[in-house]
Amino acid sequence: MSRTGRDRPFVAVAPLVQLDGELTDLAARGRLTRFAHVPTYRDGAFCADLDRITTIETGVLLMCDRASSLETDQQRLAFSRAVARKFDRFAFPDDLVNSIQKWRNHVISKHGRQHSQEGELYRSALDVLVTADPSWEAERIRVTITVLLPADILPPTDPDADPEVGEVDSVNRLSATDIAEQLLSGEIDMRLGALMCNRLQDEWAQKCEPTGVIETVEFQLLGTADLTAGEYLASSRLDLEFLSIG
């Protein structure tokens, strides 16, 4: 049964604001929780400012001209997710924030560099999810940070591969930049795929300093096809907004 204006006499509205190119791109990628991108309004340079939501009577809308802005199901879904993300932010404990501070600073230093391979890999991330074991209420917490990437970025792996000692040593000498470059190239040998990902995960974990109730911080790189529903439901989203301005 459809609802009439009498059933819902009020509607929430937010102003459209124009951002510069870089910020518009970040908002479109879901990096800025304050803004929800409106892709087809005036060449896609405008976003809804979700920090300035207010309530008006629905009758006021009758005096306004309507402009089409979300034309496809994909656009409408992305917009609704941006609004939901704004009101569904998990309050992580300060100990976690302090534990990942150095990694956070490292990400910030790389993220904005257009010619940084590691920065490009960060920009490719679809989501960053955090899981606490056994729970956030525990006295000692083991944290796993999942960096979710498009399925075509991560290399295929051979579960039966038995890399030689020389191959392991060679991968262990690679920097995070070297590994990011090879991941983005899409040309990593299947035998070395898992080694490359494990090396990068270790590099990121070494930049964390567990403190307080945080006992360990580990990373995992996953493609969209590898994240199970159970893992997703057990995790909380770490806003990618921290990669840029607040």
Give a concise summary:
With 246 residues, the protein is an alpha+beta fold. It is built from nine helices and nine strands.
Secondary structure blueprint with pairings:
Blueprint: E1 10-13, E2 16-18, H1 21-28, E3 35-38, E4 46-49, E5 54-57, H2 73-86, H3 94-99, H4 101-111, H5 117-124, E6 127-133, E7 141-149, H6 165-172, H7 176-185, H8 193-205, E8 214-223, H9 229-233, E9 236-237
Parallel strand pairs: 7-8
Antiparallel strand pairs: 1-5, 2-4, 3-4, 6-7, 6-9
Helix pairs in contact: 4-5, 5-7, 7-8
Keywords:
246 residues; 2 domains; four-stranded mixed sheet
Describe the overall structure.
With 246 residues, this protein is α+β, with helices and mostly antiparallel strands. The chain has two domains: 10-86, no CATH class; 94-243, no CATH class. Helix content is 34%, strand content 19%. The chain has helices spanning 21-28, 73-86, 94-99, 101-111, 117-124, 165-172, 176-185, 193-205, 229-233, and strands at residues 10-13, 16-18, 35-38, 46-49, 54-57, 127-133, 141-149, 214-223, 236-237. The chain has a four-stranded mixed sheet. A hairpin with a 7-residue loop joins strand 3 (35-38) and strand 4 (46-49). The chain is globular and about 75 Å long. The mean pLDDT is 84.
Describe the global form: globular
Q: Which whole number gives the mean pLDDT?
A: 84
DSSP helical segment count: 9
**Structure class:** alpha+beta
Q: Helix and strand string, N-terminal first? A: EEHEEEHHHHEEHHHEHE
Task: Please mark out the parts with pLDDT under 50 across 5 or more consecutive residues, or reply none.
Answer: none
Q: Summarize the main sheet.
A: 4 strands, mixed
The radius of gyration over CA amounts to 21 Å
Query: Total number of β-strand segments?
Result: 9
Q: What is the CA–CA distance across the termini?
A: 42 Å
Kindly give the count of domains. 2
Helix content class: 25-40%
Strand order of the largest sheet: 8-7-6-9
Beta content comes to 15-25%
